[in-house]
User: What shape does this take?
Amino acid sequence: MSAFADHLQLSKHAARGRHGVVAAQNLKAATVGAEVLKAGGHAIDAAVATSLALAATEPWMSGLGGGSTMLILDRATGEV
Assistant: This one.
């Protein structure tokens, strides 16, 4: 480690939620995803909404042409 890195400390509080949690680098984008959950959307709905909001709020970091991976369980069928 460098002398600079030896003095870095990250202190973040644990986040918890009873009805879901949305995490994003940009607060506005995370809020969009949380609002989707609040309105009755599923985790995938919130993830897509957050991603679209990130494309608008941080286009230099993410965009519509990016890729992602999801592992999705369909509770009705038990299919992954």
